[in-house]
Amino acid sequence: MEFPRDFVVFDTETTGMPPGARLVEIGAIKVRGHSIVDRFERLIFPEQPIPERVIAIHGISDQAVEAAATASEVLPEFFQWIGKFPLIGHNVSFDASMLAVECLRLGMTAPENPTFCTLSASRRLLQRRSHSLQNLATEFRLVSGRSHRASDDAETTLQLLWKLQEISGSAFRFRYLGRGKPLMQFTPIQPQLPNSKQYLQQATIGAEAAEIHYRLANGNMIQARVTPRYFYQSQSHIVMEAYCHMAGYYKSYRLERIQAVYPCPDAPAPHVRRSF
Questions:
Q1: What is the number of structural domains in the chain?
Q2: What is the pTM of this model?
Q3: Do both 182 and 143 map to the same domain?
Q4: Is it the case that residue 75 has pLDDT exceeding 80?
Q5: pLDDT of residue 88
Q6: Which of 54, 70, 166, 242 is 20 to 30 A distant from 103 in Cα terms?
Q7: Within this chain, do residues 45 and 151 fall inside the same structural domain, yes or no?
Q8: Within a domain: residue 271?
Q9: Is the pLDDT assigned to residue 228 strictly greater than 80?
């Protein structure tokens, strides 16, 4: 494949690791030839508190996103903005997985844009102990801006791409960036729920609530009214993401800890509060 004339370099910031994490920021740069022609930068309200350990990495707090649009608003805008252009990222499988998971969670179909990775190219072309974006930016004196912020990391990724092309010269091949796995192929397979929990899966279709008896990690039992939205596999566990009516935001529940389920069809619709 020839190096495309038009492409998008992007990065995301999140609440953690997919498939359970939420987006909190997307940053992207649209490139034509060797020129930046447009930029996309949005904070995203993740509908749940951002863990302190993650805030320590990217610096995006709950207060920073409390007035931001949700992924259901930002993703359609982003997908329209990228069109059918190829997507390039550093460790792109992480960012592509985040986009695909959010689409699945929201009932959207992820687009088929091919994805390519500067991390793969760096490992192919450079002999280094670390191929992290930050270490490579320091080594090559790239203008990196704020580390672990989506727009700045997207710009650093673009500079790294150009640096790799400069180092390799005519020997650089676009295939070093990968095979162009389509974004939609990063969508995780939905786990099969046991018969005793089928109501929870059915409840996701009509956004219906349920009363659950849930065993905490310490063994204590609690009752909670939840509206299920999304199920995913986490190692050997199936996890349910559901709106907790008492807390006012989305939480994760391990399926095997749900001891009983009772329908609550007349419960009010989820309404996520904006400050935590």
A1: 2
A2: 0.95
A3: yes
A4: yes
A5: 98
A6: 54
A7: yes
A8: no
A9: yes
Angle (CA) 270-245-97 rounded to 5° is 60
Model confidence at 171: pLDDT above 90: no
Q: Among 138, 153, 186, where does a domain finish?
A: 186
Give the CATH number of the domain where residue 164 resides: 3.30.420.10
Rounded to whole angstroms, the Cα distance separating 158 from 160 reads 5
Residue 15 and residue 150 in one domain: yes
Q: Are residues 179 and 203 in the same domain?
A: no
pLDDT at 122 over 90: yes
Residue 90 is which amino acid? H
pLDDT the model gives residue 230: 95
User: In sequence order, what E strands does the chain have?
Assistant: 6-14, 23-32, 35-43, 87-89, 114-117, 181-182, 209-215, 221-234, 237-244, 249-254, 258-264
**Count of all residues that appear for the chain in the document:** 276
| Over residues 49-63, mean pLDDT | 97
On whether both 159 and 253 belong to a single domain, the answer is no
Quick one: which of 231, 225, 235 has its CA closest to 261?
225
pLDDT of 1 over the 80 cut = no
Q: Rounded distance, CA 228 to CA 218, Å?
A: 23
By three-state DSSP, how is residue 186 classified? helix
For residue 31, give its domain range: 6-186
Percent of the chain with pLDDT over 90: 88
pLDDT score for 148: 83
N-term to C-term CA, the chain: 48
